[in-house]
Automatic annotation (TrEMBL):
Pfam families: Peptidase_S10 (PF00450). GO terms for biological process: proteolysis; secondary metabolic process. Belongs to the peptidase S10 family. InterPro entries: AB_hydrolase_fold, Peptidase_S10. This is Serine carboxypeptidase-like 18. One of its GO terms (molecular function) is serine-type carboxypeptidase activity.
């Protein structure tokens, strides 16, 4: 099952202004309510195993949904939900920590020199986001970092930097994937150019025409008069409060209840670097039961993986970006299928 969340995204809407205001925790509770109501209308699925899945910013919300479902099971909410675990791809967990880890990711990928990294570490003392304006040398080092990285595509550092694509009627543009942290908009006099066919986000433009086609809306049972225009990444159309700073504590709580989890990262994603994902997983302090090794698809390395005692599997997707299935669909499908079947990746 799937739904557009939080309210205001996709084809979802609220009948009242009050109902349009939501947050990390409120959106999670609404998702839990949706799952319960859906199951009540489809009792034939009561016994089916349930996994909660998401990518990107869902890394903040999905663990809360799992926690809410688990709490409901503990206190006997009906219907009884057969929750088995969750999956997260390129998940945001602590945005400040993720932004701080970018400098190490860029160095690891050969984009920053050893000398620049060492200088930044020395003068910034590990803090590359909230920098003291009086720290002149740190700011100078970070300016040098920006010069090396400004023209990269942060969603996948090996792909062309084509800019962000918005709908033909859109009046604003937001820097690619900064939606994870905050809305950085600037009014435009003219619309951004149509991307070249070589640009992956050419499909983002086409999605506008697909989603606003009357036949598509009818097939999706979208009620007439509700959402006038479908907009990709509709940040201006939602009232959303990011009231959870980090979701790591939810992962720890869920782990204690023995739910399975698969956390995977495209290894060329600079938005949520796998460096930081590995760091917060290690912070849960569970022992390793299956040491770091490659996993294969069609005889080729699909990525690398490690499994922990809390039934959490971490995997990188070789050549994947933000998010991994967009760039490596075959590898991600095989990873997903094997994990669901309790098979080694």
């Amino acid at each position: 099952m799937d739904k557009d969340a939080p309210v205001g995204t996709g084809f979802s809407y609220s009948r009242s202004l009050e109902g349009s205001f939501t947050s990390d925790t409120k959106s999670a509770k609404q998702s839990y309510i949706f799952i319960r109501k859906w199951l009540m209308h489809h009792p034939e699925f009561f016994s089916n195993p349930l996994y909660i899945c998401g990518d990107s910013y869902a890394g903040m919300v999905v663990p809360i949904i799992v926690q809410d479902i688990s709490d409901g099971i503990e206190i006997g909410h009906k219907p009884s939900i057969n929750l088995k675990g969750y999956l997260l791809g390129n998940p945001a967990t602590d945005r400040h920590a993720e932004l701080n880890s970018q400098i190490h990711f860029f160095h690891h990928m050969g984009i920053l020199s050893d000398e620049l990294l060492e200088s930044a570490k020395k003068h910034c003392k590990g803090e590359y986001v909230k920098v003291d304006p009086s720290n002149v040398q740190c700011i100078k080092d970070l300016q040098a970092v920006s010069q090396c990285t400004a023209k990269l595509n942060p969603s996948h550092i090996l792909e062309p930097s084509c800019g962000q694509v918005w709908t033909p009627k859109c009046k604003k543009i937001i820097r690619d994937r900064n939606l994870l942290e905050k809305n950085l908009c600037s009014n435009l006099i003219s619309l951004p150019p149509i991307p070249l066919l070589k640009c992956r986000n050419y499909g983002h433009m086409l999605s506008y025409y697909w989603a606003n086609n009357d036949g598509v809306r009818k097939a999706l049972n979208v009620r007439k008069g509700t959402v006038q225009e479908w907009t990709r990444c509709n940040l201006d159309g939602i009232n959303y409060l990011k009231n959870v700073k980090t979701s790591t504590g939810y992962h720890l709580s869920i782990s204690k209840r023995h739910y399975r989890s698969l956390i995977y990262s495209g290894d060329h994603d600079a938005n949520v670097p796998f460096f930081n994902t590995q760091t917060w997983i290690r912070s849960l302090n569970y022992s390793i039961i299956d040491e770091w090794r490659p996993w294969f698809v069609d005889g080729q390395i699909g990525g690398y993986t490690r499994t922990y005692a809390n039934q959490m599997t971490f995997a990188t997707v070789k050549g994947g970006g933000h998010t991994a299935p967009e760039y490596r669909p075959n590898e991600c499908f095989n990873m997903f299928k094997r994990w669901l079947s309790y098979e080694p990746l």
